[in-house]
């Protein structure tokens, strides 16, 4: 039966396209790409000649109906985005919802995702985390969003663009405080892959001091909120100390 395949593509290193992904991209009738020219480079690298069509944020809702017609006619389709996993800060949500509601199969392939790849090597707690996508572009929206997350105990993951990295780091220092542990992962899987870790103030200082750290693709990860130990000594401990003190010479 025809299906819509969700196919992750590399986030920098072409070698990260799986053999299963290559097989599916060759087999389907059509590849829906966020940007056909951009994906053309990857597809031609692998000699994949399947027909391509554009599916991006601006036409996704209109295209969904058309995709359902193709599936009904028996044609399988693969969805890819410019990089990484479709739907993760990328188009595809409306399409998948529509295709499922129309009763067709949606089959996901596992593969690259910048958030998960960066988290796996960050050294930050990975047992619980929250993916927050891109922070708002405007200062007020950004600060409001960070304030809502300030007490969240989970590791927080954000995507960021190079021209907003300084502003976002400044907002993080302002709202989470200078001492919050964090990691900035840049150009993951590419030649200039860098992980900067330290307190928020330290990471901001490193990025301010080196313009190269303000370039490329960036994932910001913040340690979750840590409740400080109660500063007052509990009553039971004071009783014990008083007894012990009485015994001392
Ligand atoms: N769908 C993609 C995924 O699964 O990761 C994310 C697409 S989103 C439009 C692009 C953002 O992902 C970039 O601005 C950056 O924050 C992050 N990103 C993508 N590739 C990256 C890489 N190689 N290193 C670090 N961050 C990356």
Spell out the key features of this protein.
249 residues, alpha/beta, 5-stranded parallel sheet, 5-stranded mixed sheet, elongated, binds S-adenosylmethionine, EC 2.1.1.198
For the secondary structure, the number of strands is: 10
Biggest beta sheet attributes: 5 strands, parallel
List bound small molecules: S-adenosylmethionine
Report the span from N to C terminus: 87 Å
Order of helices and strands: EHEHEHEHEHEHEHEEHEH
Oligomer: single chain
Judged by helices, strands and strand pairing, the structural class is alpha/beta
Mean pLDDT score: 95
Tally of separate helices: 9
Low-confidence stretches: none
Strand order of the largest sheet: 3-2-4-1-5
How much of the residues is beta strand, in percent? 15-25%
Q: What overall form do the CA principal axes indicate?
A: elongated
Rg over CA atoms, rounded to whole Å, is: 24 Å
Helical amount: 25-40%
What does this structure look like?
Pfam families: RsmI_C (PF23016), TP_methylase (PF00590). It is built from nine helices and ten strands. With 249 residues, it is α/β, with parallel strands linked by helices. A five-stranded parallel beta sheet has the order 3-2-4-1-5, covered by helices on one side. Strands 6-7-10-8-9 form a five-stranded mixed beta sheet. Helix 3 packs parallel to helix 4, helix 6 (139-149) crosses helix 7 and helix 7 packs antiparallel against helix 8 (200-209). The radius of gyration is 24 Å and the shape is elongated. The termini are far apart. Bound molecules: S-adenosylmethionine. The site of S-adenosylmethionine has 24 residues, from helix 5, strand 7, strand 8 and strand 10.
């Amino acid at each position: 039966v025809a299906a819509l395949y969700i196919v992750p593509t590399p986030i920098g290193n072409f070698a990260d396209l799986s053999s299963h992904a290559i097989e599916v991209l060759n087999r389907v009738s059509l590849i829906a790409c966020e940007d056909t020219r951009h994906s053309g480079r990857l597809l031609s690298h692998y000699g994949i000649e399947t027909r391509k069509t554009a599916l991006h944020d601006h036409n996704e809702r209109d295209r969904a109906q058309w995709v359902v017609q193709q599936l009904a006619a028996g044609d399988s389709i693969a969805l890819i985005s410019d990089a990484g996993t479709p739907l993760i800060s990328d188009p595809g949500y409306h399409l998948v919802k529509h295709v499922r509601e129309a009763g067709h199969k949606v089959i996901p392939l596992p593969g690259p995702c910048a958030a998960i790849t960066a988290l796996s090597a960050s050294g930050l707690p990975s047992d619980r985390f929250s993916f927050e996508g891109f922070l708002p572009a405007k200062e007020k929206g950004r600060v409001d969003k960070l304030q809502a997350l300030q007490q969240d105990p989970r590791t927080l993951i954000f995507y960021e663009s190079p021209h907003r990295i300084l502003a976002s780091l400044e907002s993080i220092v302002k709202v989470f405080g200078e001492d919050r542990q964090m990691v900035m992962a840049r150009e993951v899987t590419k030649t200039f892959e860098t992980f900067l870790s330290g307190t928020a103030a330290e990471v901001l200082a490193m990025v301010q001091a080196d313009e190269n750290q303000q370039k490329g693709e960036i994932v910001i990860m913040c340690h979750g909120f840590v409740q400080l130990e109660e500063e007052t000594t509990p009553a039971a401990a004071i009783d014990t100390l008083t007894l012990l003190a009485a015994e001392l010479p």
